[in-house]
Structures are given as C-alpha cells and as structure tokens.
Prior knowledge:
Number of strands: 17
Distance between the termini: 32 Å
Number of domains: 2
CATH topology of the largest domain: L-amino peptidase D-ALA esterase/amidase
Helix content: 25-40%
Structural class: alpha+beta
CATH architecture of the largest domain: 4-Layer Sandwich
CATH class of the largest domain: Alpha Beta
Number of helices: 11
Radius of gyration: 22 Å
Strand order of the largest sheet: 10-17-12-16-13-14-15
Shape: globular
CATH superfamily of the largest domain: L-amino peptidase D-ALA esterase/amidase
Amino acid sequence: MSVTAVPGFEAAGVASGVKPDQTPDLALVATADRRPVAAAGVFTTNQACAAPVQISREHLADGHAAAVILNSGNANAATGEPGRDHARRMCRTTAAALGCQPTDVLVCSTGLIGIPLPIASVEAAIPAAAEALAAGDAAGRRAAEAMLTTDTVTKLATAPAGAGTVVGGMAKGAAMLAPAMATMLAVLTTDAPATPSALHAVLRGAVDASFNTLIVDACTSTNDTVLLLARATDDRPPIDGPSPAFDALSAAVTEVCTTLTAAMAADAEGATKLARIVVRGAPTTDAARRAARAVASSQLVQCSLYGSDPYWGRVLSELGASGVDLDPERVDIAYNGITVCRDGVAATHDEAALRDAVHGRHIQIACDLHAGVAEAEVLCTDLTHAYIDENTGTS
C-alpha cells in the first residue's frame, strides 16, 4: 500500500475528462476526519513554476493541510492569472466536498504546459472523488494510477517509522527529471507525530538524498511537488527536533522517497539503461555531487550508454568541465568494477568482460578523483530514440 497504509488517511482516483476515454486523471488524498494536520512541501526550483505550485505554497504557510487534490493530463502551467484561479477553484470545490477550509487543501497538476485547464470538468468530478475516498490498498492504487502521465506503472512505497508508525507514499514521474527534483508529483503520509518545522526538515533532507539524485534529461519541470502530511494517532509529544524519533522518521521518509526515485528511474521515458554515477575521492561532498551530475547530465555519456559503449573519454571530459578542482592525470574510471582509465589514461582490461558488463540494464560508472575523501552518487538513464519520439509527438 502507499498513502493509505497510514491509519487516518483515505484516497481516491476518478476520471474527470482531462484525459480522453475516461482514463483516471483526478486523485484525492485526505485525512479521514477531514481535519488539517501538520504538513510540509518541497517544490520545483524553476522560476516559471505552475499555478498549483504557487497556490500550494500559499496554503502551506501555516504548516497544515487536510487534503491534496491532484490532476494529470494538464500541468496548469504558463496559464497566468486564470491558471491561479483554476487552482484555487480546485481547492474551493474540494474543501466544499470535504467540509474543510480551502486553505487546508493543497493542489497539484501534471501534464502539458501552456494549455488552459478544463476546469469545469475537473470541478464536476471532485465531488465524485470525495465520495469515493476510502482506506485500503485498492483506494491508494486508484489514486496513484490517476496521477500518471507518460508513466507506464504506478509508483508506491511504505516504510516503518519507529514506535509502530509508518510512512506511505505515491509518486509519478518519467521525464523532465533533473535535480532539483523532476517532472514529478509525490504525496507522502505518516502517523508519526511531528511539528510542521520538523516535517519540513525531514522532507528536505529526504528529497536531497533521493529525488535530487536522479537525472533523465537534465530538465527541471514547472510543477515538481513533494508533500508530506502527518496525522498522529495518539497523544505522544510531537517530534520537534533532533531525537531518536526524528531520526527514525527521517530514515523512513528517506527510504520511501528513495524507493519512489528508483521506480521513476526504472520507468523513465524510453530508457534501456539505468546508470549509477559514483564519484569518489572528491575534496567535498558538494564537489563530488557536482562532478557526478555533470557526467549524468551529459548527452554524450547518455548516448554512449544507449549504445553499450564504455567510452570513458566522455566521462573524463565531463569531470574536467564540471568546475570541480581535480588533476585529470590522477582520475580513475571503472564500468561495473572494470577499470578502463587509470591516472587519466587508458588502462589494460578484459575487453570481453567489459562488453558483457555494459550490455546489461544496470551500469555503475565509478570515478575516483584522488583529490579528497568525499563521495556522491547520482542516478541517470540513457538517451534513446524512444525518448526523442515521445517528446516530439511521434509515438
């Protein structure tokens, strides 16, 4: 189960007509008693952020929420003031159906940019979504299905959070994946007691360790949103800072986000390879991360992955262009443990073993800069004809 694995939360997924053929495209997650609970959000860094991002930020100002309404098939982005009005109308209609305040509703959208949202059909379907709210696995899966755009599978995760509590999550995302975050929406729930400030700290750390380590096409979306709602089921003191309970919740939220990140990587548009770019021996963690992201974002590296070509020269070139202070003649590079570059030049290796290694779906490219002790890891995929077809409207 996902968000509905947590006691006190319900979910639903229905069709609203945004997508053709009555495909589910409207998801709703809400507290069972419709009361607001502690909540936190992390949003896209894109300055051209979509209307629902703007409205959800406003509604999260008090650190509480009772529900999240999400539509797929239309991003409600680059739609100006009418788009903000539509996002607010989604919140008002949801609030009316649930009996809470509009400011207690958060809103998310995903899909095509620059096209007005068919708000009348969305509003008409919201009461049906509210009526369909239920606990249990089936309801959680229906909500997760209604979030999808070019995804081929639902993305669900749960993890224990200590003291009998749990974290559940659902996400969508298959392209425009680049730190920070991706063309993605994610909703997480928990019954661990926590203050809004503690939730934000937990979520920020989890996003940095998970969604912000994935690159598919180095594009940052207008709509990226990760939300976390916490509904305590007992009278335990709230988690409000560093403590064993904070650490347990942080670990659980990070585990859920990491699982969802891996699911998005596996379902990336057109991808045939999933690569882990590991940079070791960097002067700082930030430097290691920048170097790994430079390699993962390289279209040349992504193309070589697609061709099962261990062209380490492209990797070395991207490391050198990353802005990280390094000596190229000390760099080692290995594909799935087979060293192909040592001290910046070609290394003798078993070519047959290397061919076998790079023809598999999972590839690790490990780079040792020998310039320190810090390391970082970034996930990426290959660049394929299928990705291009998907994003030129020919598939």
